[in-house]
């Protein structure tokens, strides 16, 4: 039996986690996937219950899991906590070695019609942001915060860049065979090394085309002509920013999932968005980000390709029938959406 650890977290996290698990439980019996789901406190709710965002029991459960699902963490309540929920998330990623964060952006027909961007600009958009997740300015030492001075360190080693590059090139090999490496090599030392290693790794993949793009112009091109991208590989902070920007293509963060992979531990699946304190508790969160994250789990951790396909096709039909949450311009509540999807899967 597979063990799935669920970390609902804070804000809309528990709302979309409940939604996702209900849908998973409706979908899987006919595929014979045998699993149990165990929930653990993580983030702000873990600070409230144990005093720390990543309790030892939660970390241990994640280390022993076959797959991990995360809702979202954080919120104003814990902004001044000695250790914030976000710090717990970084510790979890570092502890599990989740260096490769895969953030797909794909526009289906039903989403195309709802986008704030013109249809012809986004029709057929299908790219993946491969974000390095355990290095760069998020983790570099030294760091300090004093009254008159603050310091962060952006640090990358050659081997950290090599392994994320190989991940990106391997993904590109299964797709349109194009990698866009995004950096700031006109200014940053880490980006100069990044570009050099990208060129080196590209030689191992002669069938894949490599291009470089500076992050500022990449930010512009992502909206101006998003169809040109296949696989975008970039460092931790740039990947964080560009992936939220990419949510303007579907028009909401509420439909974007992610998968994070390591070299030896199980993978973690989570929406790219946060705990959305502005809509928490209102039953209006879009659960698709979580549902698509579950679909990535079915494919990538459990090789349940047909189940994932059925789930995504059912989501598409439900949207086409007019069930859309507020972020997509509709009036459907989270629970109504889940109900409609469950009916569709019956
Ligand atoms: P956010 O991503 O939580 O929200 C940004 C905007 O998108 C809000 O208007 C929100 O309502 C909307 N939104 C996000 N998800 C949605 C969904 N599923 N359906 C409908 N609308 C949705 O970003 P923020 O407000 O800057 O951050 C809130 C908290 O979340 C912060 O504490 C931040 O650190 C944390 N955060 C956590 C994660 C994570 O858990 N992985 C990721 C990002 C931010
Ligand atoms: C994300 C979030 C996190 C990040 C925060 C909450 C630490 O924004 O998962 O994209 O910056 O990685
Ligand atoms: Mn982010």
Automatic annotation (TrEMBL):
Entry keyword Zinc: no
Cofactor mode of binding and number, as noted: Binds 1 Mg(2+) or Mn(2+) ion per subunit.
GO terms, biological process: L-leucine biosynthetic process
Names of required cofactors: Mg(2+); Mn(2+)
GO MF annotations, alphabetized: 3-isopropylmalate dehydrogenase activity; magnesium ion binding; NAD binding
InterPro entries named among the record's database cross-references: IsoCit/isopropylmalate_DH_CS, IsoPropMal-DH-like_dom, Isopropylmalate_DH
Site, Important for catalysis: residue positions: 138, 184
EC numbers: 1.1.1.85
General function of this protein: Catalyzes the oxidation of 3-carboxy-2-hydroxy-4-methylpentanoate (3-isopropylmalate) to 3-carboxy-4-methyl-2-oxopentanoate. The product decarboxylates to 4-methyl-2 oxopentanoate.
Family: Belongs to the isocitrate and isopropylmalate dehydrogenases family. LeuB type 1 subfamily.
Stated name of the protein: 3-isopropylmalate dehydrogenase
Organism of derivation: Vagococcus entomophilus
UniProt lineage: Bacteria, Bacillati, Bacillota, Bacilli, Lactobacillales
Gene: leuB
């Amino acid at each position: 039996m597979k063990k799935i650890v669920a970390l609902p977290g804070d804000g809309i996290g528990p709302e979309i986690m409940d939604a996702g698990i209900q849908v998973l439980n409706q979908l899987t019996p006919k595929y014979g996937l045998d699993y149990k789901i165990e929930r653990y406190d993580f983030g702000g709710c873990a600070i409230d219950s144990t005093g720390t965002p990543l309790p030892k029991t939660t970390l241990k459960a994640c280390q022993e899991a076959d797959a991990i699902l995360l809702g979202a963490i954080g919120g104003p309540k814990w902004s001044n906590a000695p250790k914030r929920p976000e710090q717990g998330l970084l510790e979890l990623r570092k502890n599990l070695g989740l260096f490769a964060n895969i953030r797909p952006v794909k526009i289906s027909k039903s989403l195309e019609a709802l986008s704030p961007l013109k249809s012809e600009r986004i029709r057929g958009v299908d790219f993946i942001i491969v974000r390095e997740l355990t290095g760069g300015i998020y983790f570099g030492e030294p760091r300090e915060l004093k009254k008159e001075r603050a310091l962060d360190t952006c640090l990358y080693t050659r081997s950290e860049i090599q392994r994320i590059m190989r991940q990106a090139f391997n993904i590109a090999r299964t797709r349109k065979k194009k990698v866009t490496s995004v950096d700031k090599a006109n200014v940053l030392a880490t980006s100069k090394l990044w570009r050099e290693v990208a060129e080196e790794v590209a030689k191992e993949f002669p069938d894949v085309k490599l291009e470089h793009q500076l992050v500022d112009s990449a930010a512009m091109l992502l909206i101006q002509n998003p169809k040109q991208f296949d696989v975008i590989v970039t460092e931790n902070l740039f990947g964080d920013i560009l992936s939220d920007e990419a949510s303007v293509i579907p028009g909401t963060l509420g439909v974007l999932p992610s998968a994070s992979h390591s070299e030896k531990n199980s993978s973690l699946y989570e929406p790219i968005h946060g705990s959305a304190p502005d809509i928490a508790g209102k039953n209006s969160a879009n659960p698709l980000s979580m549902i698509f994250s579950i679909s990535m789990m079915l494919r990538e951790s459990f090789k349940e390709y047909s189940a994932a396909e059925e789930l995504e096709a059912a989501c598409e039909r439900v949207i086409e029938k007019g069930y859309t949450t507020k972020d997509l311009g509709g009036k459907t509540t989270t629970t109504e959406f889940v109900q409609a999807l469950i009916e569709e899967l019956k």
